[in-house]
Every structure is written in C-alpha cells, then in structure tokens.
C-alpha cells in the first residue's frame, strides 16, 4: 500500500510503497482510510520537535487524524463490524489503567499514538484498536469528518474544560482562526453563552469567523492586545483559547487575561515566561490540552450530526501530500487539509 513516510527529521517525508498492517491481537481493528487530516503537529514532527517525546524509530508513517471504513477486526471485537464507517480516536489505549478507567484516554499509561509513536493513517490502511473507533452514521463521508479526530477533538476538549467558567456575560478570546480555531469557535457557540473575540493575522480568515459565531474580530497587527483590552472594558477575558502557541501569540494571550482568567494552550512551539509574582497576584491559570477523551469525540460527532459544527477542508490526493504540507507551512491552507488515499 501507499504511505507518507518520514525517513529523517528536517527532511520532507516520502510517498512510497510499504507492506499493509497485519492483525496481531484480538482487539485489533484495521481501518481502510477514507481521509487523513494534515496537522501542524506533522510539521512539528518533521522539525524534530517530537523526536524525544515520541521515541518513534524512523522511518514511519505520519497521520494521527483518521477516519474510514472497518476493513478487518480481531476475534474479540464486538463494537464494530467490517464495513462500518468509523472515526478513529487518536490513541490506542489499554482500558485497564487508572486513566483509562477515569475516561482520560489521552493519559493511558500503556498507550500508543499512531502517527506520533507508531505508524499512522496517511496510508491506505491503519491498524488501531476496538477502543479507539467511534461508529458513525454511514451517510457521513470519512473525508468530510476526518479532521474532527484530532483538530476537532482537541478544540472540543479545551472548550468543554473552559465551559463551566463561561457563564453569560463572560468574554473569551480565540487566538487563531485556522484549522482548529474554526472548530473551537463553533464549539464555544454550541456549549456556552460567552461573547467570542477572535484574533488572527488574516482579515480573510477573520471574515469567515463571523458566520461560525464570532462576536468580534481583531486583526493581529501589533495593536491587537490593546484592542482586546478595549473590547473587555480594560479587564481582559475570562478565557483565552490559544490555538497558535508560538511566534508571540503565547505571550499576547497572557496579556489578554482578566484576573483569575485561564489560558488554554492548544497550539504550541513557543515558550512561556511569566513572572511567578504575576501568576499569584492575579490568580491566572495555564491549562494544557492534549487531544481529548473518547467521550469528547463521541459528543463532538453528535454536534456534527446536529449541524452545529461543520468543517472547512481542502482535499488533496495522498500522492499530493507534499503539496499539502507546503500549503500548510506557507499559510496558504484555509480550513483543514485532508489527504485521500
Ligand atoms: Zn494533530
Ligand atoms: Zn490505559
């Protein structure tokens, strides 16, 4: 089968023929990929940022944002059947550790992460497990919803964590109106009555956010922190949901926080340097977000089926993976890039 394989860090991946995955355990599920989302994390992987954390041995297949149809199931799999349409939770989890029993799939102590630590879904087939697959209505096309498996899930997870704080009258800043931001805005609208302020460098991207539920838009032109403070009566926002997390956005986010406000970090690549006295004297909070739970993904699929969350995607054949990577890297990708085998 064809797969997008990373051979060396700091070099573009190669599209090449590799053997198909083989069943090895009773809970294995092999999915025929209908759509594999391209994520900024794939760029960070190529840059070597994940080399130490993931411990993956090269070469391997990228792709952690997958949906498709069940191709083959192990003898103990009872929740899906061959031919079912599925979206794939990004982690393969054990179901037995304390985190799994609490529903926190992303913290499973025995997890593997296809596309990060083992072969992923930018390929014809992906091997995952019964615990990772969410069965979908067959009317849903995997290529249309694949991006919900990671981009959507991470955005939903962060918004759901923030939602108890976002009562009527609160204000939330969303930094970044790209692949994740546009889902985050729709999730905020679906789950909370908060007033939404979106910050992005691109006026065109900001224009689109109005139809997803943005109440105010601010161009990141160097004066954006002041503009956000004006829109929040000088106090700052109860929550800043930072889908960028690099190139200064992470520092801007801190300046946009109200006292006791919370900075949800989703995009990454930069670093935060905040004097501890500022943290204690204002009781601001910093919250990391790593994908989300299986139930988060199932809930997000419900919102999608209800038409409350829709995705803006750009489709590429798997063979054009390098074009997609280039477009994402150069800022020419609107919405989420999806590779179709
Ligand atoms: Zn990702
Ligand atoms: Zn576990």
If you had to describe this structure to a student in words, what would you say it looks like?
With 341 residues, the protein is α/β, with parallel strands linked by helices. 28% of the residues lie in helices and 25% in strands. The chain has helices spanning 40-46, 51-54, 98-101, 142-145, 151-162, 181-191, 203-212, 224-231, 249-255, 276-282, 294-305, 321-329; strands at residues 2-6, 14-17, 28-38, 60-61, 66-73, 85-88, 125-129, 133-135, 171-175, 195-200, 216-219, 237-242, 257-265, 285-288, 313-317, 336-340. Strands 3, 5, 6, 7, 8, 15 and 16 form a seven-stranded mixed sheet that branches. The chain has a six-stranded parallel sheet with strand order 11-10-9-12-13-14, with helices on both faces. The chain has a three-stranded antiparallel sheet with strand order 2-1-4, with no helix packed on it. It is globular. The relative contact order is 0.16. Residues 39, 41, 64-65, 150 line the site of one zinc ion.
In total, the number of strands is: 16
Task: Decide which structural class fits the backbone.
Answer: alpha/beta
Mean pLDDT: 96
Which ions and ligands are bound to the chains? zinc ion
Helix content: 25-40%
- List SSEs in N-to-C order: EEEHHEEEHEEHHEHEHEHEHEHEHEHE
Strand-residue proportion? 25-35%
Main sheet makeup: 7 strands, mixed
Query: How widely separated are the two ends?
Result: 10 Å
Principal-axis shape: globular
Query: How many helical elements?
Result: 12
């Amino acid at each position: 089968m064809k797969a997008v394989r990373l051979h060396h860090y700091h070099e573009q991946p190669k599209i090449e023929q590799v053997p198909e995955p083989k069943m090895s355990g009773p809970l294995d599920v092999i999915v025929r990929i209908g759509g594999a989302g391209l994520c900024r994390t794939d760029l960070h992987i190529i840059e070597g940022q994940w080399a130490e954390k993931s411990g993956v041995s090269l070469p391997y297949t990228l792709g952690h944002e997958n949906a498709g149809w069940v191709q083959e199931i192990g003898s103990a799999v009872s929740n899906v059947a061959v031919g079912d349409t599925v979206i794939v939770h990004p982690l393969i989890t054990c179901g037995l550790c304390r985190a799994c029993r609490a529903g926190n799939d992303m913290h499973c102590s025995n997890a593997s992460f296809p596309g990060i630590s083992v072969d992923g879904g930018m390929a014809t087939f992906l091997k995952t497990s019964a615990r990772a697959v969410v069965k979908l209505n067959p009317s849903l096309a995997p290529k249309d919803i694949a991006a919900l498996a990671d981009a959507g899930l991470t955005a939903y997870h962060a918004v759901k964590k923030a939602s108890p704080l976002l009562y009527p009258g609160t204000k939330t800043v969303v930094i970044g109106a790209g692949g994740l931001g546009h889902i985050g805005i729709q999730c905020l609208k679906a789950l909370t009555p908060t007033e939404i302020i979106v910050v992005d460098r691109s006026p065109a991207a900001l224009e689109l956010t109005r139809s997803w539920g943005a109440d105010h838009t601010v161009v990141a032109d160097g004066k954006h922190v002041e503009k956000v403070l004006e829109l929040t009566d000088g106090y700052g926002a109860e929550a800043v949901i930072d889908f960028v997390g690099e190139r200064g956005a992470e520092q801007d986010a801190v300046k946009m926080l109200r006292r006791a406000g919370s900075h949800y970090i989703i995009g990454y690549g930069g670093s935060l340097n905040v004097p501890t006295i500022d943290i204690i004297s204002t009781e601001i909070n910093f919250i990391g977000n790593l994908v989300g739970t299986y139930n988060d993904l199932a809930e997000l699929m419900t919102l999608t089926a209800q038409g409350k969350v829709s995705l803006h995607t750009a489709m590429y054949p798997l063979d054009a993976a390098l074009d997609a990577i280039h477009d994402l890297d150069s800022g020419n990708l609107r919405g989420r890039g999806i590779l179709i085998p």
